[in-house]
Design goal:
By secondary structure, the chain is α/β, with parallel strands linked by helices. The chain has a single domain, classed as Rossmann fold (3-Layer(aba) Sandwich). The protein is built from seven helices and twelve strands. The strands form three sheets. Strands 6-9-10-3-11-12 form a six-stranded mixed β-sheet, with helices on both faces. A four-stranded antiparallel β-sheet has the order 2-1-4-5. A two-stranded antiparallel ribbon has the order 7-8. It is globular. The chain starts with a strand and ends in a 10-residue tail after the last helix. The mean pLDDT is 95. It binds adenosine-5'-diphosphate and magnesium ion (2 copies).
Length: 252
């Protein structure tokens, strides 16, 4: 059983006009096996939250804490965070020229486990994860994300999640740009990975439709760098009906 605790997290970025505060005190606690949906409009700071937890150097932590099972995540390097069991599926996955999917995944798995996976079980696991995500086997030989469609990039992110078996997975708009069939396949992959590993999931999304496939235990409404309302799955239905406009007048 693992717990990711985010307390009063404050984050800024440096811009041409000086430092800009993006997160204004975020509190979240995620335990193994729990799915938390963070829903908020564009520009509210959702990706900032995801990258800050993962350790992207662009973001400066100006206050608060992030711990995983009591360990200070903010003092860890990006690699240490991954080895500790944190996983980020990026909103815009990046190309890795000259590195095949197969090599990339095996290298990542080796780095996280501290030893190379046995070849036989590895090929079985890799093929199994790719089949789960309905990706053709030939993708293993392609360079990471090079020429991948939006949907293929998102499938590849979830193949990683299946193989790396994180304690906590942060999925940043994994649903964006997916057509309905891809959304179903990707959601099934996330549900399968979660079932295999009992991961905690922070599911960042702009839309409610993925929540038809991935049932959140908790929903947090995110506006202007803060959680402004929390509840159960019924909160997503309220958002579907009323949109984010109903929060614009909120004291945020
Ligand atoms: P979301 O993921 O919810 O759409 P982001 O975390 O990507 O939001 O962005 C949060 C805010 O940070 C936005 O207002 C965005 O314009 C701002 N921001 C991000 N990067 C920069 C930058 N380099 N310069 C100025 N503002 C930025
Ligand atoms: Mg955005
Ligand atoms: Mg974003």
């Amino acid at each position: 059983m693992s717990t990711l605790e985010i307390r009063n997290l404050q984050v800024s970025i440096s811009t041409e006009d000086g430092d800009k505060q993006i997160l204004h005190g975020v509190d979240l606690t995620i335990k193994s096996g729990e799915t938390h949906a963070i829903m908020g409009p564009n520009g509210s700071g959702k990706s900032t939250l995801a990258y800050s937890i993962a350790g992207h150097p662009k973001y400066t932590i100006t206050g608060g804490s992030v711990t995983l099972d009591g360990e200070n995540v903010l003092e860890m390097s990006v690699d240490e965070r991954a080895r500790a069991g944190l996983f980020l599926a990026m909103q815009y996955p990046v190309e890795v020229p000259g590195v095949s999917v197969s090599n990339f995944l095996r290298t990542a798995k080796t780095a996280i486990d501290g030893e190379a996976p046995k070849l036989r079980t590895w090929l079985k696991d890799l093929n199994g994860a790719m089949a789960q995500l309905e990706m053709d086997k030939e993708f293993a030989q392609r360079n990471v994300n090079e020429g991948f469609s939006g949907g293929e990039k998102k499938r590849h992110e979830i193949v990683q999640m299946e193989l790396l078996k994180p304690k906590m997975a942060i999925l940043d708009e994994t649903d964006s740009g997916l057509d309905i069939d891809a959304l179903r396949v990707v959601s099934a992959g996330i549900n399968q990975a979660k079932e295999n590993t009992n991961s905690g999931i922070l599911l960042i999304t702009h839309y409610t439709r993925i929540l038809r496939y991935i049932k959140p235990d908790y929903v947090h409404v995110f506006m202007k760098g803060r959680v402004v309302e929390e509840g159960g799955p019924e909160l997503a239905e309220k958002l579907e009906a009323e949109g984010y406009e109903s929060y614009t007048g909120a004291a945020v």
